[in-house]
Amino acid sequence: MIPADFDEHFEALGLRPEATYEMVRGRARRLLFLHHPDRNADDAFARFQYARVATAYRTLCEAFARHGHEHPLGRCHGCGDLDRLYRGHDGNHYCLVCASDARGRRALPPPPIAIVWCVGPAVTLLAAVALLFHGLLTGSVRALGWSTASAGAVLLWLLLLCLSIRYTVSREERHRLARR
Asked: 3-class DSSP state for residue 120?
């Protein structure tokens, strides 16, 4: 469970909520050194800041330890929930639910599923080439017919594949790419 006052802890360190563990650790060390009571013996504000930074650092370290260090923790740009964040292709940070298109919008680029789909047409194209060579070497009209049919099937398959890949891009992204 991520604490409810999570944003306040990042604010105490002067960081954005998308900060990584290394950023939190480095900033906390600098601030703790700056506001240390041994350096500021008579300064009440420095003691207050030292306690605030120490509490924020301890809380954030516990949260990072529970949720892992590989992704920053913070508020999702899509839904506002506190969770582990993933950087989207638009530069914003999203939770896994928003990033995986579970709420009707895509924050991360689609996974490379199309690469697996290309194996079928490639194998069929190899079979068409093999049938073509067999038909040419043996003079078999039947093998040449099957080669032509296989090549047509590959072209149709690739056309459908290209159309399905084209429509994985959002409208806004298509307009942005068209303006370039």
From this structure: helix
Q: What is the CATH number of the domain that holds 26?
A: 1.10.287.110
Please say whether the beta carbons of 135 and 143 come within 8 A. Answer: yes
- Label residue 75 exposed, middle or buried (CB < 10 Å: 0-12, 13-18, 19+): buried
pLDDT at 80 (0 to 100) = 74
Judgement on whether residues 32 and 82 belong to the same structural domain of the protein: no
Cβ–Cβ under 8 Å, residues 141 and 116: no
DSSP 132: H
Asked whether the whole model's pTM tops 0.70, one would answer no
Query: How many C-beta atoms lie closer than 10 Å to residue 50's C-beta?
Result: 20
Show contacts of 19-28: CB within 8 Å, 24+ apart.
Answer: 19/72, 19/74, 20/69, 20/72, 21/61, 21/64, 21/69, 21/72, 24/57, 24/60, 24/61, 24/64, 25/57, 25/61, 28/53, 28/54, 28/56, 28/57, 28/60
**Residues 123, 157: one domain?**
yes
Q: Which residue has the higher pLDDT, 177 or 95?
A: 95
